[in-house]
Write a structure and sequence with these properties.
By secondary structure, the chain is α+β, with helices and mostly antiparallel strands. The strands form two sheets. Strands 3-4-5 form a three-stranded antiparallel sheet, with no helix packed on it.
Length: about 110
């Protein structure tokens, strides 16, 4: 059985630092956000409701608050759903903020 290793650029150029798969997987798990403490009285939103909310947030943040240009890109986490063939399903990731390509300003999604 082969062991998968991930190469990370070293802090100093003298020696490379290679992560084992277990270390890499643990870092990914720590970096993901999880919802904790759902109230039982609130129903879970459907995927249509979530998509509508995401679209509304993207519409309200379509121009940069600093330079007023429309060169805004969403900042997303890598937690999206995968289709049967392994491709990432569009708009299934968690939207955490926005970034302006022109001035470099970043702000949280609200």
């Amino acid at each position: 059985m082969s062991q998968l290793t991930v190469y990370r650029e070293p802090a100093s150029i003298d020696e490379p630092y290679i992560l084992s798969f277990q270390e890499h997987a643990a870092e990914i798990r720590r970096s993901r956000f999880r919802l904790v403490g759902h109230k039982a009285a609130q129903p879970q939103p459907t995927w249509r409701t979530l998509l509508a909310m995401r679209t509304k947030v993207q519409h309200h943040n379509q121009c940069c608050p600093e330079c007023r240009r429309v060169t805004v890109e969403p900042v997303e986490m890598f937690d999206g759903s995968l289709s049967r063939n392994g491709a990432l399903i569009q708009n299934s990731t968690t939207l955490i903020g926005f970034s302006c390509s022109a001035c470099g300003h970043e702000w949280p999604a609200s």
